[in-house]
From TrEMBL:
One of its GO terms (molecular function) is nucleic acid binding. It comes from the Eukaryota. It comes from Linum trigynum. This is Integrase catalytic domain-containing protein. InterPro entries: Integrase_cat-core, RNaseH-like_sf, RNaseH_sf. Residues 1-142 form the Integrase catalytic domain. GO terms for biological process: DNA integration. Pfam families: rve (PF00665).
Length: 271
């Protein structure tokens, strides 16, 4: 636990630039979520077309959905209990944890103080998927990093204040071209990843109208170890993807959100 009883990190990542925003918190409440969105996203970058949340109760609630509606952004949710469905956020979490571990070693209590340093390192590091840094794609120019001050690079030694405005204007003119090239590279990278994933993917043989059991993530504690790990049956009402489905009750009532096949199993009625 860090100073101020902070033990959680709320994280947001832009799908294209890979820019990460994060904050250390003592607790993540609905109020903290909306405050974070205002202070770290809306006031810095404007209104996105959509926010994609996981299914924590702090996110999947009427207050957050209403907030998104008010600002004009769509609230979407990743597949229930399947963090890989929101791969960008999962990758961002791993990057932050790796960076903190590298900087701190066993001094874990100081992690909140080092969070901004880790974020800065991530924002100024080239990403293979885009060929650019998140900083460059966000602001249209390359950041000056501390290493360039201690060991001056060419652009530092040749800097001319009189030409700075003109050079900055040129950066801004070329920014859109850099983003377009990064988008092309990102699309090619995604295609390669998709081919690799699809080659290894074993589709689960669930079809429209199948009865399925759903993994029970909150078994009744009064049943102890005898509590059932599966619940249902439910009906597959929509096949969203090879391993992603929408469900309904047998009576027809729709179950919200999408469900990954890892958390479903086909139900066979006893004779």
């Amino acid at each position: 636990m860090a100073k101020g009883k902070r033990k959680y990190i709320i994280v947001a990542v832009d799908y294209f630039t890979k820019w990460i925003e994060a904050e250390a918190l003592a607790s993540i409440t609905t109020q903290q979520v909306t405050r974070f969105l205002k202070s770290h996203i809306l006031s810095r970058f404007g209104i996105p077309s959509a926010f994609i949340f996981d299914h924590g109760k702090q996110f999947d609630c009427a207050e957050v959905i209403e907030f998104c509606d008010q600002v004009g952004a769509i609230a979407r949710f990743a597949s229930v209990a399947y963090p890989q469905a929101n791969g960008q956020a999962e990758a961002a979490n791993k990057a932050i944890l790796h960076g903190l571990h590298t900087r701190l070693g066993d001094a874990k209590g100081n992690w909140a103080d080092e969070l901004n340093t880790v974020l800065w390192a991530h924002r100024t590091t080239f990403k293979v998927s885009t060929g650019e840094t998140p900083f460059a794609l966000t602001y249209g120019t390359d950041a000056v990093i501390p290493m360039e001050i201690t060991s001056p690079t060419y652009r530092i030694t040749t800097y001319d204040e009189a030409d700075n405005d003109e050079a900055r204007l040129l950066d801004l003119e070329l920014a859109q071209e850099r983003r377009e090239l990064a988008a092309i590279k990102l699309a090619a990278t995604k295609e390669q990843v998709a081919k690799y994933y699809n080659a290894k993917l074993v589709p689960h043989k669930l079809t429209l109208g199948d009865q399925v059991l759903r993994r029970n993530f909150r078994p009744d504690p009064k049943h102890g170890k005898l509590a059932s790990t599966w619940e249902g049956p439910y009906l597959v009402r929509e096949v969203v993807g090879a391993n992603t489905f929408k469900l309904s009750e047998l009576g027809g009532a729709k179950i919200p959100r999408t469900w990954n096949a890892q958390n479903l199993r086909k139900y066979y009625q006893s004779a």
